[in-house]
Task: structure prediction
Amino acid sequence: MARQRNDRRRQHRLRRVAKSRFIGRLALVTMAAVFISAIGVLVHEFWNVSPREVALRLADMPKHQMLLAAGLTAISYLLLTVYDFLALRYVRRRLPFRDVLFASFTAFVLSNNIGIQILSGGSTRFRIYKSYGLGDVDIGAIVVFCTIAYALGVVTVGGLLALIDPLNTAKLLHLPQTLVMAGGLMMVGVSLGYVALCALWYKPVTLAGYRLRLPSLPLAITQVALASIDAVLASTVIYVLLPEDLGLTYQSFLPVYLIAATASVLSLVPGGLGVFESAMTILTMPPSKAATMSAFLAYRMIYFIAPLLIALTGFVLHELRGSAQNSSV
Result:
């Protein structure tokens, strides 16, 4: 009997490993297909644009535009750190401001560039918060809290836009207005349902092997509000870099950004490279291709590459300091 139980357990583990490998391979193939398709769209749209013209446009981009985008990027990443402060309040733990700022900034920068936030940002948070003395359960709760918060922001703002301006949103998506309004109601309903669940449900919820309690009602409301502000603020970085002849007001641009950002996250492509730009191009049909491409490049450098260099430098120094402390003990 004991041998049979062990055999069944071994077979169950093997099936789980095989299933995990299949899902991993499927995700890799899907990511590659999406990336190739996105690059194909960009090549088709920008094939007649010379690299020299793009470089000249980038060099001629007004300095105040670049500085404004850099300032908005700094504010955006600073706002993201509030996610971790709320998450620490959720798990009832306290850390110095400097430590939380470092952990949050590094995790969000790496997840933005690598993709798959719950894995890339999660593993980074685990590594850093573990060095600060937090337990596995607390760190797991922090990772889940921050991941859910990002999704809530996109869903809430997207739903509100569909309800506030259904006509323009329907034109943008080439969908019936009634369908857009129904989608908006559903998205807002998800956010309201989450808040209601946090207000009414007190039993722990099992998620990814962890038994987690839902946030309190004030914390859930703050979580949704913060995530919504973050989604709006993040969109302003690329908006201020786009050429004026695009002819888009911010209200009409915001749904474009949300769709492009969501597509880049769901694609699993690192940093949504190519996917974000393809979605933006398809939805806006820019008249000035070179100016738009230069805006995309400036956006990548300001919002992705520059923070990544800072985060990697900080992370390496953190690891070296930790190794030095361990070796001296």
